[in-house]
Amino acid sequence: MKALIQNTIDRRIEKAREFFIFMGEIFELLYQTIKCTFSGKFYVSRLMEQINQLGFGSTSITVVIGLTMGLVMTLNFGYGLTKFGGTLYVPAVVSLSLAREMAPLFTSLLVAGRVGSGIAAEIGAMNVTQQVDAIRALGTSPVRVLVVPRFWALVISLPLLSALSFAVGIFGGMIVCMSEFDIIPGFYFFKVFSTVKFYDYMSGIVKSAIFAGIITIFACYKGLHTKDGTKGVGVSTTWVVVTASILILITDFFISKIFLVIWG
Prior knowledge:
mainly alpha
């Protein structure tokens, strides 16, 4: 019995030690990324390539999720508020929800699935085929070549994608308001622009930039630590999607709380 308890304690201690080592390596990768950005050579061409691949390549799914959110949210809020005579408040509720929460959150979750898995698979395949070791052998930092361009490409692209998702969602809401609740476009846009303030837009933009950092750092970390050939690549991509999605949801709560305290 005593040996069983001791083994359980040892396993817990080992798990805790591994967790703290993991978090230390994550923050070390983030530090090296920032350091490489502001010292030494910066690969602008790689940054533009990644913006095209990660950002522009995600435009279609962003339009789809933005339009779907606008249509569904307006429909549900509309019929819900109609029961209480609050149909005229639908544009305000939908636009505020999209700007502060729904557009950045759902766009980031979709991008985490598409881009996060792609980054982990690409860098993981390079790692198991020793291409990352070849970069080191040439005297170049893999962080500078592989991580920095992807990190800044997504930090730039994801806020723009969230803004696009918000705009398309507003358009979808207008269609439902016109067809289902007889709200004319002029009144709809008046309520949208009079409700959503500058700090509401900034809340979504800042959230998206932070989510982008989470996605790229965890995807690049897992890619650089991928082992066991193609099987390991598959495991890494799954891990990145699940971990990044959970972290985005948890982080969203705390960022929302901070912004509500600051701006109300």
